[in-house]
Fold each of these.
Amino acid sequence: MRTATLTDASALATAPKGRSLLADARRRFFRNRAAVGGVVVLALIAAFALVGPWIAPWDYEEIDWAVLGSVETMGRPSLETGHWFGTDQLGRDLFARTVQGTQISLMVGIVGALIAVVVGTLYGAVAGYFGGRVDGAMMRVVDVLMSIPYMFVLILLLVVFGRSILMLFVGIGLISWLDMARIARGQTLALRGKEFVEAAIATGVHPFRIILRHIVPNLLGVIIVYATLLVPSMIIYESFISFLGLGVQEPLTSWGALINDGAAEMRNGTSWQLLFPLGFFVAGLFAFFFIGDGLRDALDPKDR
Amino acid sequence: MSAPLLAVEGLDVTFPVMPRGAWPWTRPAGLQAVSKADLTLERGETLGLVGESGSGKSTLARAVIGTVPATDGRVMWKGRDITALGPASRRKLGREVQMVFQDPLAALNPRMNVGQIVAEPLATHTDLSAKERRTRVSEMMERVGLLPNLVNRYPHEFSGGQCQRIGIARALVTEPELLICDEPVSALDVSVQAQVVNLLAGLQRDMGLSMLFIAHDLSVVRHISTRIAVMYLGRIVETAPAEALVTDPRHPYTKALIASVPIPDPVRERARSRPVLEGELPSPLNPPSGCVFRTRCPIARPDCAEARPPLVQEVPGHRVACPYHDRGGPV
């Protein structure tokens, strides 16, 4: 009689929740202090980038004519002038510019990592699942793309098509998914031999559904870890490009561009122009790395 | 007489194996996992398939279910050759032929909960609504002896026996006609083995299932099967009704196999004489000529190396691939 009542829809709705592998991992992650610290720092930086434009007294492209010409003395960080982080060499408010640069840098990092996750994972999973000639052809394409020096391609793209954020995304998107595709393919090869995949094949599930429902969810652990470690490296690419002077176009800016500007004026006694963007850059990268480390520990069941 | 539910005719499965350190363009050697296998399975029957590790039992099952391609021969499902089907129509057969796997935990996707796992065949082959699927899943879970309120749990929260029940529920939820069990109990404790075997036997009776039951443990197979086929190195050497095969084995390999089944009584166990097979299973890359069993056969004679002995029907329903089995020892 008890089993009869259990089949009711109402009884089913109250069925106890199982502990999924991801729920277990979440608990392990939040026990890791460094990783939680990383999340907090990153949340603060993201809040800074989102809320900053509303609280900044100055616009990021507005020039404070009163400061121009005597930036070393008048452009110091101060609460009275409203230039909380000081100004840059052209008298533009560094707080507003750092907010704007943070937006660009985070966006570049996250978009780059997203392209890598979506394109790289699907590409690698398809190659690994079908195997044989399909796999051979798909992975040779990756090998060829990898053998091209990416910085060279990126610089060429920016020179030929002009400097724009779109081109930067295209360039970073082109290179970011290659490593991810290899990682996903390797993991898929291991998963394809598992009996649950065979069970799905035997059941007659469509291959693309198998990839999406059985392969990709089991790749997630590796992918998440790699993606969080990829975000900072994307930010570093962009910063390097901007440092070379090829990144985002003025008046837009990014962490790399700001650091470049600050470094150029290092000897003129305007160290705040370097230290503020650099502080955000370093804090952001550390946060991402700690989160990535924490995720790796949390998602690796062998390392509990 | 209508066509049998499943008929395997002259099935060959050969895997290409690259010799170690070979150039990519060298022709791979062929590993013959299954060679000219003939089997029939009638509706409602349970066919046991026994043989030692590496004898090709699982490969035969996988060729039937289509996860391993057949190199030659045919697999006839209700009189229709399914090895020639395109991938889409082959997938549709998943509704009628289902499989239970050896490693209960590895056969369940660790990222899906039990409800999703059991519902997958329904989602693939029927267009039931989510609510109807849930009802069917909970009915099926009850039938295999699981509480339906476990649907939200994940595979790693269950024991091996429970995982195997989930696997059975998934296999049976679309009410297939043939269930292929690939060593469904060899990864389980002996006490759990009995439960799972009895569960399968009961479900078979209730649902009118046919089963292809693979195991290397003859006592388990004997308990559940109506007929038994014995495999050695990819060849079927003897098929007979279960009782006839156990009480009156004819092929020397079957005799050795039955002699090796332990008797759970130390006095009788010690008293019986057991002909022990010498040597190892030969390499399937380079099988012996003629009768593949001759290298270990106690009654082998020189002409065994010449031609492969055919499966000959001696008594109705009892086929043996050994022409000399009733001639006693070596001449």
Note: Residues 1-12 of chain A have pLDDT under 50 and may be disordered.
Amino acid sequence: MNIRTLFRAAIVAVAMVATPSAVFAANLPCRTAKLIVPWKPGGGTDVIFRIFANAINGYGVKPEIQVVNVSGQGGNKGAKEAKRSDADGCTLFAIHQSAVTSYLNGRVDFTWDAFDTVALLTSTPDIVGASKTAPYDSLEEMLNAGRKNPETILTGATFGSTSQFMWLLMEDKTGAKFKYVPFDGTRERMTALLSGTIQLGTINVASGKKYINTGELKAYAIAADERSDQVPDLPTLKELGVDMTYTLDRGIMAPKGTPKEAIDHWASVFKRALEDPSVQKQMKTKGTGLRFLGPEEYAAWFKRIYDDHEKVAVKIGMYKK
Amino acid sequence: MIWENVLLAINELATVKTAMLMVLGVACGLIAGAIPGFTIAMAIVLTLPFTFGMDAAQGLATMVSVYIGGLSGGLMAGILTGIPGTPSSVATTFDGFPMARNGQPGLALGIGVWSSFCGGIISAILLMTLAPQLARIGLEFQPWDYFALVMFALTITASLAGDHLVKGLIAGALGLLVATIGEDDINGVARFNFGSDALLQGFDFIAVLIGLFAFSQLLSDVQDRETATKSLAETKSVRIKIEHGKAVLVLMKRWTNVIRSALIGVFTGILPGAGGSVANILAYDQAKKASKNPEQFGTGTPDGIIAPETSNNATEGGSLMTMMALGIPGDVVTAVMLGALLIHDVIPSPSFIRDEPQLAYAIFIAFFLANFIMLALQSFTLKIFVLVTKVRMYMLASVILAYTAIGVFSLNNVQFDLWTLFWFGIVGFTMRQLGFPLAPMIIGVVLGRNAELNLSRAFAVTTDLTPFFTRPWSLFFIILGLFSTFFPLYQKQRGKRPWTLVYPSLLSICLSVPMFMMGGAVRPVLGALLVALGAYFLIQHHREGWKLDPRASEAHELQAE
């Protein structure tokens, strides 16, 4: 009657039927490795990594991957749990820029370098979105209003989280100032934008596409290097003269001190999934870009991201060096 | 047009594979819902990877089945063991468990099953006909309105406390206090953690709920040798058969309760973030207030089972409406379903039903069918489940506790939740012994975070307090909350004091004000009807010369004895 065992058995059965073609073998001391996702089931990060885990378990890789949600404290609860875990290659940790922002806003006392980097996998650009009721028709109008009446435009973002850093960077680049109302999580922000509780907020391609097309939400720009082919009419911030990008980049890390073979094993496994056409198709429909960086490049990338964020955080007085 | 879509959708679903998946889904949901602590959300998340390989309609049909199975599974555990399987069936235990202990588990379960079915079907019909219009209501709610709604829900504490008003209020306040422990959701400020990293995480409210209700119940069940060797139905002969016929008759006699609870369920479901855990308590409270014999609530009255079970199944329809029509999930369950839709490149929006009629109607039909499958499966599984009441308490308690612990651990996969379960079990046990009601505390824990979050948002927008009174929905719930606070007093003094004569008229006239403020076509008409109703009562009292009728309340007291 144990439902978990039943489910697990079913997962194993499906995996065995699927493809036992090339079986990787890494000497890890476990039958199942856990991939800690520090956010709620059904959220952006969760769905992305469940797609990866599903594909990888289909290759017959041992140990298998089991997604484990440890949600709470804006991702920090899961991060602490991952940091505490044994560094034996049996625990992986899915993360994005929040590893940096949570340290800078003082909610945790460790940042990305408390982990070993495995691989960067996806990149989801933020869209500068606005409610239908917002009285600005372009980015320029909105920024002018933000400069003329600083700290009056209601913007959905939780203080010191990734949802606020896009706006902080924009304030830094343009001189506009916004007023923040705590709405963390893309879905909550979407609801608040649709109901007109807030006027500005970041959204992403997957959840916002339809509303942008029907005109129920306004979108001023996409914070990426290039336009998205899902919303080709939306200009990039750079095209509009604001020299910045802001993407949410998700990757895999492991507890500090994980053996090199284990890290290389997981990096190659995730790389294979990334090159899998079915995974690529699912990510594309979600509007998520794919971008692979191996363990060393990923560490260098995190270093750069950290420096960028630290500069902003020091400037606004959130973080003191 | 509708029928064409319905037929197309049936065509889509009418394959052996889909039917089997749905039956399997309902069965898994039933089992998951019956295990305390193992939430429906968890069951749906576990289903998610399987749906990657199915087509969209099939995948969603499976998920809907698990969802419905899960909601209905909670009632088996709730009625037979007094432990709510899910937060959505907390109120079911108030009367379901006493009824089962009074030797009528068959009837209690029958009423539960048929109430679930009715709630599901009523909301399915509303879902099919009114989804886009009703879903819009969800968007009218802003932080002020949510806060007022939660405040209204908190006034229920007073009526749930019954005779021990002060103890009930203490328990409620204690619940609110527990909800503040840990990092706050807005700025991440640490509160009441005393430097401990574990307390900084805060208590998971489901772990608290299971601890307070389940663990403490199990502890009281085995407090001495004598009670420990008893079984749940030791004293009276148990009829293992589920009394379907009798249950249906009971329901038909109380059809107003069924309809009212279903509407409460659908309405709460539509609001993002409210959901079944609020709906079942609201519906129970309204049933108690509307009842002629409120004293019987808590002792095993059929109305006390009908209200929560109808409403929690009706919330599914409501949250599916918002999810499909607006792409806004009302709870974790619909959030996961939305995730599944996005993977298939289906993005819900107000035009979703027009753009993808086949898929939309497939969800409607699956919802409808799953209710029938649930009814069939539940009649069957309940027969096995009733046997639980024959097991000796010490064995039953250990097995339930083991499953409960597994369920609680799987919520967040952290050990700390198990300690939460343990300590709150002891807190709950102590409170029971001292005569504190536990329900108000649960309400405080469940709603505290929600109230705080929305209040902070309201204040982040403006520190001005007037929006609480100028926004129609907010005003609506503030008025309801005020009247609800005085309701226990009204019930006691009805007919004895002059003010009680104007209470109903005043309520309906006051409520018409926000209805007029909302504008549109339908709502001012409703407002006008409320005014007319209020005026009618007043005129009637005037004709009778404002005569007091002490019999009205005495009648109660006699019945109670």
Note: Chain A touches chain B through 59 residues (CB under 8 Å).
Amino acid sequence: MSGFAGDAKAISVVVVIGAVCAAGLAFVKGQTEGAIKAARLQETAAAVERVVPAGCKVRLDEERAGATECPDYRKKAPATAGGKPGCFDVYPAYFEDGRLCAVAVRNSNTEGYGGRIEVLAGFAGLENEETLVLTRIYVLSHSETPGLGSLIATAQDKPPEEWGIDRKKVFGLNFRNRVLKDFSFTVKKGTEATEGEVMAITAATISSRAVTKAVGESSRWVKENLGAIREKLAAAPGPSADGGAQ
Amino acid sequence: MSGIAEVTKGLWKENPTFRLLLGMCPTLATTTACDSAVGMGASAMFVLVASNVAVSALRNVIPDRMRLPCFIVLIATFVTIVDLCLNAFFHDIHKALGIFIPLIVVNCIILGRAEAFASKRGVWDSFLDGVGMGLGFTVGLLCLATIREVLGNGTWFGLPVTPEGYQILVFALPPGAFITLGFLIGAMNHVEERRKANG
């Protein structure tokens, strides 16, 4: 077969195959969309639960999971986001009686040794600047060198009681239950770091710095926007799957 | 060739990882842990079987000069289905495999089998070829991942096997993948030569 008839057949075969494939994909996407959203929400909720104090109940809906557009108070200053407007994602947790108990703030940068790192930091004592405490951090994603930079996430899936006391082995210890006013976000190499400084992981100073920078930004943002955070997240969201608080 | 031979050739004689040396990129990259290796192998196997069957079924409809675009559209569709399903139902594995799931589209095992086998043979033979090649790829990845995870991380499927402090870090890193792969290919060639020499 040659000429016009051959071309027409070739084109129509490709078009039909493309259309059938597209229809199939649309069907699969429809079937999996809900499950993907639920899995993401579940993943975020599990991470938030790790960084807020025990007894705070995490209640996320899509709006609180940061899926909607970025309101002004959550916008990053352009300088901290490398010129582009970024956004702090903030996830609240509530006491049994529905009062705001703690927030988890997600921040990321691309200054890790392997590129992008994403860190969740928990903050409690939101009444005022004096009581504000950095409870814990959780590295949500990174692509640091296994065995070196990847130690930023060491033991973070275990309960803090099992972390021991070695800040060079368990990086998260640097950020555990810190009163912000006594805490500097300066990374020190070697062993001479004081109580309030962050101790770098041996042979992974860049990874340590990247995490520390992200946590520092989150901390300063929480400190400066305490009022807005309390106001916007004051009440638990309406009745949710697990009963709701109101 | 009998049905069983179509399957078993992928496991040894034409093993995609160790004999054909196809699909090296995911082989080297996803074998740091056994569960991601099995996830990668199973995903590739599903795509391979589905695309082999589809290509074989459509081999008389698809015009010869348009075969590559058609094959790629079919393969990309199956890969996207795997990507969505893994994301929805096996979220952790999806996270661990990351970019390597979408990259199955350009995995040369899959296009290679579509071009060299499925576009010339019947649906049943192509199905068996897909199963065999998929199994061969999965077993190949699992061998590599077992060695790398046990030596590099001290675990097997996440279960601790060697005491703390006895890990050889290089096996978890890219050079370890090349070294392990080289030794495995060498061992396989050695066995094959002995087998030939003995008749």
Note: The beta strands of chain B are 155-156, 159-160.
